[in-house]
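Collaborator request log, item 7. Partner lab (contact: R.S.) asked for a structural prediction of Bardet-Biedl syndrome 7 protein to inform their binding assays.
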Amino acid sequence: LELSLSRVDYLQVGVTAQKTMRLLPSSGKRATQKVVVGDQDGVVTCFGIKKGEAVPVFKTLPGQKIERLELGGALNTPQEKIFVATGSEVRGFTKRGKQFLSFETNLTESIKAMYVWYISGADLFLCASYIYNHYCDCKDQHYYLSGDKINDVLCLPVEKVNCITPVLACQDRVLRVLQGSDLLSEVQVPGPPTVLALNNGNGGDSGEEVVYGTLDGKLGLIQIAGAEAVPKWEVENEKKRGGVLCIDSFDILGDGVKELLIGRDDGMMEIYNFESADDPVLRYDYALSESIASIQGGCVGKDGYDEILASTYSGWLTGLTTEPVHKEGGSGEELKLSQEMQSKISSLRNELEHLQIKVLQEREKHQQSSQSSTAVSSVPTFSVNDKFTLNKDDASYSLILEVQTSIDNVLLQSDVPVDLLDVDKNSAVVSFSSCDSEPNSNFLLVTYRCQANTMRLELKVRSIEGQYGTLQAYVTPRIQPKTCQVRQYQIKPLSLHQRTHSIDHDRPMNTLMLKGQFSLSEIHSWVVFCLPEVPEKTPAGDSITFYFQNTFLGTQLESTYRKGEGCFKSDNISTISILKDVLSKEATKRKINLSISYDINEESVRHTLKLIHPKLEYQQLLAKKVHLIDALRELQVHEGNVDFLLPKYRSILEEADELLEEYKKQPAHLERLYGMITDLFIDKFKFKGTNVKTKVPLLLEILDGCDQDGLIAFFEA
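Returned to partner:
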């Protein structure tokens, strides 16, 4: 079955958050459905489509921003009651817009995730950042404090599994399955889960199947049977697309099997189907220019034609419909279509003219008022959706900036050295400014001038471990008067480390021990300062253990700490050295006396060098090949024929474009590896109390020779 879908833009509301748009159940089979959407102005809009035009059903007054919107209803009746989470309150509306519920929860933070289920009464599963609460008919039933931020929540269908089983998607790459107020089991997933959905919309035949999507774009299905969890399938993000924001199940192909609909934060809409009944296969994708906050399958535009409806970050409701745009048939039908089209085009033209006149009038009014002596200037507010995440694949940070209107320019400033990497999707014009790093500690000043209608900008930077500070982005959209918002991102001392579930305990490890008069929350705040992906809130318990992996080198770190003592183990001496310097500095700031001891394993240096060497060899070879390209191309132009060249030189010419592309994507990669080996050399002898900085030029000479045994011998001399 070939899938042919046409795009339709229906309506724009305010900026929307994740999972805030749903389709109300239809009255008949394949009859059009009403759309209900909540935006960040606090407005709930419900509308239907008649003759291609959006017809409002109801619209509420503005208020606090809407974080989630869910549908509910008693078992075996249409799910048409609308529940919205706004601040710490849940409101309920009927499908006609009459408010029947206003429930102020006892949560101190805003609700970030919500799930609604009718069992004996209305069951609300609500989550703030770290807290889960279950309410039945507005009475508090259960409570759970999570070890890391909760991104989403759902409950397995009670009529199938016969007990209330909530599932929390937590930032530390874990799905937590609860029973009452207790943790039943933890399921490890390959990335931080951002969204959960019941498989097939009902949890599958057993009701135990949950589909998850992750921040780094992976998908997976897990069967949760009580305390047991079985992974069924997993889809890698091979095309390096955005993180998953929304999931739905709907039979868009009409073959009787529901497909999986996915919306990503880079604007990709995807349809997966189950050809082999085992793993999903990507059947169709469509790219929008901004992130997709919600996705739903149903019938919206015309009776009998299914479609996929998405709501985007800036509030556009866009459909991909199976209704053919050009009807095939007699000239009568074509004429009818063209008349319909003509009337639509003329009405759009009239609306456009009307808007242009209105804009001119308002502009004149603004000019006149701004010249009067009593004028008060107001700064227009705009919403920025930003994300700063570490990519495991290339050990770089992705900075994604999304604005509700077109971006004019973005200025990036950093007080620590960072490398800017190339991003394929980025079409902005980049200009670097020279900056003085000495008095102002300014290491980077770069401006991105965006093309018209750019609402989303993706940048990539790579930091250097041991150098920490702040990266700032100044975002200026195309609005008058010109305003700018500043966003700040912390570059941490061990910025290239990523949380992992387990480490290899057989590696040679170096140990750093701290003892002193500090509390658990104090040492936890130091670890938060040093390492990414650590929850800001101190986890419960007397002792805390975290595992990390260095995304650039593959070395590892284990940190275990409690009140009064901390133990850090790593197979990389430089990691231990950075921790020692930063932790003692932080303790000194707070006037805490630390007793520091360390145990250095000589074998770990050889082990780390063996990890670095293949990367070093590869980068040196790449650099040599790139330096030869120009000379070889000149030979090719002069001789016309390159058959006389050795095969290895001919292959360089054949692969020239790919080699240059790869080299351009990884500027300063070789320098970074040289820097890491130099640091390793200095740190090894620093723990012995020897200063070897005068020997560094000798080391660099050996590095240019790229001899692993010679390098190890030099370190051990």
